[in-house]
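Repro:
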Amino acid sequence: MAAATPGKRPRKGTDTAYLAAVLANTPDPIVLCAADYPHVITHPNQPWLEMCGYTLEEVEGLTNKILTGPETDPD
């Protein structure tokens, strides 16, 4: 696959290496979820995991509803 052109969105079907590089190289917390219901977590980056206090193994396959339980801090 050719490198993405600056300023243009990657084409649908972008390879996972590109996605992994984007997630690994941003300081912003990002979590990607499946497009179809129930929108399970597929790719959280490290800043998101640190912000939420979870590990990858704890969240993979769950939904963002894990962040709204009775013992969570809404702030």
